[in-house]
Amino acid sequence: MSNVTAPPDLTASGSPETIIEFLYYAPLKKVTKYEQDLVITRDAEVTRFLDRFFKQVEQWLGHNIIKKVILVIVSKDTGKTLERWVFNLEPHTGPAQLDKLQLKIQSSLKQLKATIPIFPEIKEPTVFNLLAVAKDDTADPADGTPEKWVDAHPHAIPADIRDQTALRGFNTSDTKLDMNVVYVDQ
Q1: 14-17 LR contacts (CB < 8 Å, sep 24+)
Q2: Looking at the domain that runs over 10-184, which CATH code has it been given?
């Protein structure tokens, strides 16, 4: 087992609805959201998967059961993790400053879109997976935690073959977002 030092993660806090909306539009058909042109999948099966996943994540956030969602991009042929995006989630139930929050999200999305060309081009077939990570103190199925949690591969990228890019995040009175992209250094 290799010793992997965890890189900084992306932290998102705010209402569960705001977090889910950001996660859904941040990862392919062209749509305009936050005054930005974004791409979301057209594949019906993937859309159903994302809808089910994010609906469940929203419920778990509402019950304060999970602490992060991880998006991994994996080589279809080798199973090697090529990119790993960690979203630390801190739900906020108070009144949100939506105008300010939307401007901050718009700015972050603009920066993210401008940064993508610096990442290595992935030239092999890939698949993605989404992982939900339970809070350490969530162990009782009576509190809303699914009875069949499954331990999943964390898809960490070893420090000796990875690179990372920290992106400018934002912090408002009700939401914080720090972004860091970790990828295989080719």
Answers
A1: 14/90, 14/91, 14/92, 14/96, 14/101, 14/174, 14/175, 15/91, 15/92, 15/93, 15/96, 15/174, 16/57, 16/58, 16/61, 16/62, 16/91, 17/58
A2: 3.30.900.10
Which amino acid would we find at residue 143? D
2 CB-near residues (< 8 Å, 6+ apart): 158
What span, in angstroms and rounded, lies between the C-alpha atoms of 174 and 186? Answer: 38
**pLDDT of res. 77:** 94
d(C-alpha 168, C-alpha 163), whole Å: 17
Structure confidence by residue, pLDDT tens digits, 77-120: 999 999 888 777 776 666 667 777 788 888 888 887 787 777 78
Domains of the chain, by residue range, sit at 10-184
Residue 50 or 17, more confident: 50
Are the beta carbons of 83 and 73 closer than 8 angstroms? yes
pTM for the whole structure: 0.71
